[in-house]
């Protein structure tokens, strides 16, 4: 008897093959990062085909065949339409997905990272302030570095300016509102702090990420 499994997931990426099928890269709530195929979706008349697009939050009904997950059905939980309608927000969201796709390996449960992505996308869906979005990205990278065990405050601070050090300390203490209150912590400074964290990640994990590839309108 087939055992069905219901699991929530975010679509990190996709690619189509054949005339009708689409392969999805997912970050799931219970199984971490997995890949699976939704057969026939490209020719389907379903209105919720957006569920197979990146960013979408989806509930899948799955079963296992050997080591592979097979899709029995799915339902769209959230399309994040506000993000999709704003190019700047869309760029930020795609950056989050790209970073996670490189950080997270298949076969490992990452519940804290799943919640981080969920909270980040729901926040981004309601917040178009550029400065707050850049602060979100800084916090996102800080959290991932801590989860990966490469976070060394002394090493990070070594290459930062005075103001960047203050922002970093406040991020570490999760004092986000304190950062927002300080007008001198501008968009430009938050952007360059992201660049320096990317460089630190590249040195420690050999992961190459670049915010500039996703900044639609620049600074």
Automatic annotation (TrEMBL):
Keywords: DNA damage, DNA recombination, DNA repair. The keyword DNA repair applies. SUPFAM superfamilies: ArfGap/RecO-like zinc finger, Nucleic acid-binding proteins. One of its GO terms (biological process) is double-strand break repair. The gene is recO. One of its GO terms (cellular component) is bacterial nucleoid. This is DNA repair protein RecO. InterPro entries: ARFGAP/RecO, DNA_rep/recomb_RecO_N, NA-bd_OB-fold, RecO. Belongs to the RecO family. Residues 5-77 form the DNA replication/recombination mediator RecO N-terminal domain. Involved in DNA repair and RecF pathway recombination. Pfam families: RecO_C, RecO_N. The keyword DNA damage applies. Coiled coil: none annotated.
